């Protein structure tokens, strides 16, 4: 994805836009994690691995993306996607576990249905962990993966 800017509306334009979105989202997530000082434990280092993987993947696709580079970028993005999804689960579970100590939900937690409890933990109504942050990393990975569809020199599976 180098050379002249792609024509607006062309498949190349949309691939470049998705790649740019993946890069900007990854950078924004890194800034957000840095501002939150998200490195206090080994587990908090995991999203930094995903950010590093996504950063390398974006650069691989930006620089004359041949088949090997695209395959490597896809593997890195898939890794970041899995780490992002695992982060969502860890954040939801952390919120769920913290709920009995919450000033509001602690009083009604036992009376809530299981679905209502998990939903409250997922939407950040209870607990300290934002579920949106790791979800954004997974989204960046999907954007990068989508940006490689139809890349020059890459044959679709089965052909």
Arithmetic mean of pLDDT: 87
The total of helices stands at 6
Terminal CA distance: 23 Å
Structural class: mainly alpha
- Unreliable sequence segments: none
The description of the largest β-sheet is:
none
Task: Please give a structural write-up.
The protein is mostly helical and 159 residues long. The protein has a domain at 11-89 and 131-147. Helices cover 65% and strands 0% of the residues. The longest helix has 32 residues, at 67-98. The two termini are 23 Å apart. The mean pLDDT is 87.
Helices and strands in order, then pairings?
Elements: H1 11-35, H2 46-62, H3 67-98, H4 105-108, H5 114-122, H6 132-147
Helix pairs in contact: 1-2, 1-6, 2-3, 2-6, 3-5, 3-6
